[in-house]
UniProtKB/TrEMBL annotation:
InterPro entries: Ribosomal_uL4, Ribosomal_uL4-like, Ribosomal_uL4_dom_sf. GO terms for biological process: translation. The gene is rplD. It comes from Chitinophaga silvisoli. This is Large ribosomal subunit protein uL4. GO terms for molecular function: rRNA binding; structural constituent of ribosome.
Length: 212
């Protein structure tokens, strides 16, 4: 998959980059994408929900009245779940929502997600961003020239490493997020409308793996 490298003015630099077909040109597997997104969203849940049972709420433990002879129903103590202020029956308890996925499944999900964006022509390779100082208006201007940050469409900027000036420049733009290439995940890819990959980050895809 060959893409033109654009400059911050949104124009072609005359350079191109060949992204590997085995990452950007496979047939997407929708089911593994679903599993990876499900795992990511499940991991965001704290699982700290908790209610008090009748053993934990305040109240006397004495029986309200004798078992028989009152003409009413049988009752225990005031902490009975049927009374206001009583305990909760079968309420939520703290637990984890983690879902285990094999590494190969997660890798296939990321490759499938990148291939989806490639098929949609939603990937832009941008020359490296060298911002002297953090400036949101400057970064917003770059996005405007690239014609990506319109009508609430989401943009994900993929960097080779953390860049403080870039992060501070885009963090106040609600529809834009950034991520290091090493931290990219299936949810971030699928949750964005456009993927902007900087030139240095894109070149990592083309590097030959080092043999051990």
């Amino acid at each position: 998959m060959q893409l033109d490298i654009l400059n911050i003015e949104g124009k072609k630099t005359g350079r191109t980059i060949e992204l590997p077909e085995e990452i950007f040109g496979v047939e997407p597997n929708n089911h593994v994408i679903y599993l990876a997104v499900k795992q990511y969203l499940a991991a965001q849940r704290q699982g700290t929900h908790k209610v008090k049972t009748r053993a934990e709420v305040k109240g006397a433990s004495r029986k309200l009245h004798k078992q028989k002879g009152t003409g009413g129903s049988r009752k225990g103590n005031i902490r009975n779940p049927l009374y206001k202020g009583g305990g909760t029956i079968f309420g939520p308890k703290p637990h984890k929502y983690d879902i285990k996925l094999n590494r190969k499944v997660k890798d296939l999900a990321k490759i499938s997600a990148l291939s989806v964006k490639a098929k949609e022509n939603s990937i832009i390779v941008l020359e490296d961003l060298n911002l002297a100082t953090p400036k949101t208006s400057q970064f917003a201007g770059i996005l405007e020239k690239l014609n990506v940050n319109v009508n609430g469409r989401k943009t994900l900027v993929v960097l080779p490493e953390y860049n403080d000036n870039v992060y501070l420049s885009l963090r106040n733009i609600p529809t834009v997020d950034s991520v290091m290439l090493s931290d990219i995940n299936t949810y971030d890819i699928m949750n964005s409308n456009t993927l902007i990959i900087t030139e240095s980050a894109a070149k990592i895809f083309t590097e030959e793996p080092v043999e051990a």
